[in-house]
Amino acid sequence: MPAVRGDGMRGLAVFISDIRNCKSKEAEIKRINKELANIRSKFKGDKTLDGYQKKKYVCKLLFIFLLGHDIDFGHMEAVNLLSSNKYTEKQIGYLFISVLVDSTSDLMKLVIKSISNDLQSRNPIHVNLALQCIANIGSKDMADAFGNEIPKLLVSGDTMDTVKQSAALCLLRLYGGAGGEPTATPSGEWTSRIVHLLNDQHMGVVTAATSLIDALVKRSPEEYKGCVSLAVSRLSRIVTASYTDLQDYTYYFVPAPWLSVKLLRLLQNYPPPDDPGVRGRLNECLETILNKAQEPPKSKKVQHSNAKNAVLFEAISLIIHSDSEPNLLVRACNQLGSFLTHRETNLRYLALESMCLLATSEFSHDAVKKHQETVINALKTERDVSVRQRAVDLLYAMCDKSNAEEIVQEMLNYLELADYSIREEMVLKVAILAEKYASDYTWYVDVILNLIRIAGDYVSEEVWYRVIQIVVNREDVQGYAAKMVFEALQAPACHENMVKVGGYILGEFGNLIAGDARSSPQVQFRLLHSKFHLCSPMTRALLLSTYVKFINLFPEIKGEIITILKSDTNLRSAEAELQQRASEYLTLANTVSTDVLATVLEEMPAFPERESSILAKLKKKSWSNDAAGASGATKSETVSTKANHVSSERSMDMGASSGAKPQSSMSLLVDVLGGEIPNGMQGNLGGFSNASMSAHEENLKKLICKNNGVLFENDLIQVGIRAEYRQNLGRLGIFFGNKTISPLTQFSPTVSCPGILAAKLLVQAKSVESQVEAGAQIQQLINVECIDDFVEYPLLTVNFVHGGSQQRHELKLPVSINKFFQATDMNSDSFFGRWKNLSGPQQEAQHIFQSQFGTDDIDGVKTKLVGFGLALLEGIDPNPDNFVGAGIVHMRGQQIGCLLRLEPNKQANMYRLTIRSSKGSVSKQLLDLLHPQF
Amino acid sequence: MMQFMLLFSRQGKLRLQKWYVAYQDKMKKKVARELTTAILTRKPKMCSFLEWKDLKIVYKRYASLYFCCAVEEDDNELLTLEIIHRYVELLDKYFGSVCELDIIFNFEKAYFILDELLVGGEIQETSKKSVLKAIAAEDMLQEDGRPGSGTI
């Protein structure tokens, strides 16, 4: 057992040794339970324990807790220790409280009482102990109890330096960093006194104060603007200091690296200083830091280089943030360039990361491009995947028209070896770059087919949908695409995604290569069909559609195709979808009269480029007509023709034939056979059902500014919503209406919050009956609670079975951050006063845009703003055309005040929308939600 | 600011954990488990920074102990490494060539020293001398506070 320092507790040391000697987990638990029983009996026993014993037992409990066991007693004894007059007991008491006591506990009152006694102590060590405890717990109660006391400690001339340091950071914690309650921050007279701590003699005080000021600046940049020139002077004194000047605040020959970095970080809250003198001095500092990077190191220790480079990287961040000094930007880029080949992995990593930002500045984009070779090399040679990831990010950021082909090629090469963890992201990046910079679309097709070949598993639906859209829309690549997919499919093992793309493209454009005997119709068909059995039902369904297309394109292989359609694996497939398609296509090909067949197949569209939304509407209409006259086949002649066009269009939108083609043939079958519309077909392909989904997006947009309305609708189902919100809580009623004449069974709507949304929005959905009768409507209640600001929408997934086929719709619920608005009235003075206070670059979000609906409908705009949740403040803006509004967003732990200004420019038919709030992410999200409304 | 600091052994045993942001106990255990596994599988020459959720993880190994800090997007990675180093130096000075056992048996001291270096996840005092002075002053108080030494 090693020596125990100071006032060591022997009993504790023995206990820790015992635990360490335990041979098994069970033995350890047994020993711990024995100890817990012992401590419990001591605490409960009649004998009063002295301070030392209490301390020892509390310490043992703490140790047991840190081993990962739950502790449910001893809190009271720990609180007792706080008022001990022996420091050592007090200290253990505070440690226990900080680690183990829940800030909502009933004991908090007692704790606050003890803290407040210690804050009054004349002994600075006691004061510090109390401050540290406040900082560790940092609850609202603490803020209420000490929010006034601590600022006084901080700026008082009598306070010891060490206490000031703790007090500054304690306050920082009570203000809850950047997102806490704005009311608690000191203002007015405090502002200037706090800012002037930047001039304090004591470096430790300045360091702690800078952290605090940084947080305050994020709240109210205007109020704390005075810190800029002080921070620049302080920085200037440090960077020009020799390492001997600052004594113990020099760290491995680097003068005050922590303070330097904090000052540089603080300055990143503001644009470059307006005052030319201050600006000049700041630029000198930045230059000096860049110069120092060139000097030979004063020590070989890694601590020296880390501290020096920490300052350098922060200076470069500031240079990038200002984005106004081309000379500094290029120097920064060169410096980072030299790090790209540094032997320290950490520096290579950070240099790649920093360069990503430089690549986005117009001044340094070209300078970054000079390092392309090195970055590509990093991709090939770095042994650490996190560094390679950074290299991929940088290549993506530096890509433009001039180097796109090379960069995409290198990324493709790397993809073959890339770590699984980053493949999906890389695939997306390559696909985006290829589309963005393609001047020659044959190149684009090659790239995407390569992606599927190399990393098929990671190619998401969006990617392969997109390539089909592009091929369909560009006549010049169709023949090439057909040839390329045909070749790709000849590989002995090819990815299912390739089969999908291949199937689709050959179904559309196979005729373009059919002249070549090597890719004759029969060869194409047999090639595709050789993959059929290895594919999922989804892909098989797509291939069946391709086959029926082939009947049209290549009558000579009709016989062979019909045999396939007739085979048991299709016609009697366990998959309802396959069975249905096979039988319907078969009927289409065989049963109907030759005249009709010819007409139908002639009607198969060649995927023309059209305005899709109009057609989507037309499509919607035609279907509802059909639904209205369910059994009346008489008037469906025209309807079906329309549907046919539309559905082909639809498949162009989504780039997937599978949804559309069977449908178009379906609607014809309706005519011919006079049967009921096979709704299952449509619903089943819900994912592709673009018309109703795009209408859903449109509904969602409308529901941002109102609480009641239709969220989604297709032939089977209508989903409506009625919502009420109060503060950070909301209650939604979702109405599911069955539009058909048969019941929806296994009906199960579920609500989920994907990803990080789960932590920001609590959603609770009541369950509903599993069946919705024909024509009936049921309601589902959902409660939501906003915890923190969020961007994504919660998802409502509706699963049900209709007419034997499984349906699934994934809908976004219109729960957005503005729903938690409380409208706030204020007069002109207080509006513009607050407006000015919120002028920090991170607090404001602004967008200037062309109006979609014209700027004349003033009442319409007002309705939307009020519906958005704001109080419309009329007559307070000097310009009567402008709209201003105010509201408070309620979240569980905080409330964010938001101000809005919407300024129309009637001549140009444009708007400028500005939103300010104390939290940048809220401003931005509100802006993104609101501007598409006008 | 720093959100938390974890010290763990090569076997993945947690030796010290300090949370500057409120996490649920269950979450703490999960986070610690995830990070120890992620870091222990990394090779020595790899870089000391990891992206993890929206945080940056900075870690370094000293003898048998790993020191791991989670900092926020706008924190400086290199300087976080040096916070770790400064902490190690302080432990080293205090215990006299510190080893894992010192931290196990005197875990409360390790906490007290950390509290002098960092408060609320921000650096409070960067001067080694000042921190050691503060700790020494506390130890003095402890000696004073004890009436006689044979009270066990």
Automatic annotation (TrEMBL), chain A:
Residues covered by the Clathrin adaptor alpha/beta/gamma-adaptin appendage Ig-like subdomain domain: 701-814
Membrane-protein topology: Peripheral membrane protein
Source organism superkingdom: Eukaryota
Stored InterPro entries: Adaptor_Complx_Large_Subunit, AP2_complex_asu, ARM-like, ARM-type_fold, Clathrin/coatomer_adapt-like_N, Clathrin_a-adaptin_app_sub_C, Clathrin_a/b/g-adaptin_app_Ig, Clathrin_app_Ig-like_sf
Location of this chain's protein in the cell: Cell membrane; Membrane, Coated pit
A single MF term (Gene Ontology): clathrin adaptor activity
Keywords for this protein: Cell membrane, Coated pit, Endocytosis, Membrane, Protein transport, Transport
Positions of a 1,2-diacyl-sn-glycero-3-phospho-(1D-myo-inositol-3,4,5-trisphosphate) binding: 10-11, 42, 52, 56-60
One term under GO cellular component: AP-2 adaptor complex
Compositionally biased tracts (Polar residues): 633-646
Chain intervals for the UniProt region annotation (Disordered): 627-662
Principal location: membrane
Biological process annotations from GO: clathrin-dependent endocytosis; intracellular protein transport
Gene3D superfamilies per the UniProt record, alphabetical: 2.60.40.1230, Leucine-rich Repeat Variant, TATA-Binding Protein
Family to which this protein belongs: Belongs to the adaptor complexes large subunit family.
Functional note: Adaptins are components of the adaptor complexes which link clathrin to receptors in coated vesicles. Clathrin-associated protein complexes are believed to interact with the cytoplasmic tails of membrane proteins, leading to their selection and concentration.
Subunit structure: Adaptor protein complex 2 (AP-2) is a heterotetramer composed of two large adaptins (alpha-type and beta-type subunits), a medium adaptin (mu-type subunit AP50) and a small adaptin (sigma-type subunit AP17).
Identification of the protein by name: AP-2 complex subunit alpha
UniProtKB/TrEMBL annotation, chain B:
Domain of life: Eukaryota
One protein family per Pfam: Clat_adaptor_s
Membrane is among the record's keywords: yes
Membrane topology: Peripheral membrane protein
GO terms under biological process: intracellular protein transport
Keyword hit for Transmembrane helix: no
Domain AP complex mu/sigma subunit: 1-140
GO cellular component: AP-1 adaptor complex; clathrin-coated pit
InterPro entries named in the record: AP1_sigma, AP_complex_ssu, AP_mu_sigma_su, Clathrin_sm-chain_CS, Longin-like_dom_sf
Subcellular location: Cytoplasmic vesicle membrane; Golgi apparatus; Membrane, Clathrin-coated pit
Keywords noted in UniProt: Coated pit, Cytoplasmic vesicle, Golgi apparatus, Membrane, Protein transport, Transport
Molecular-function GO terms, alphabetical: clathrin adaptor activity
Family per similarity comment: Belongs to the adaptor complexes small subunit family.
The protein's assembly and partners: Adaptor protein complex 1 (AP-1) is a heterotetramer composed of two large adaptins (gamma-type subunit AP1G1 and beta-type subunit AP1B1), a medium adaptin (mu-type subunit AP1M1 or AP1M2) and a small adaptin (sigma-type subunit AP1S1 or AP1S2 or AP1S3).
Protein name, entry field: AP complex subunit sigma
Organism in which the protein naturally occurs: Notodromas monacha
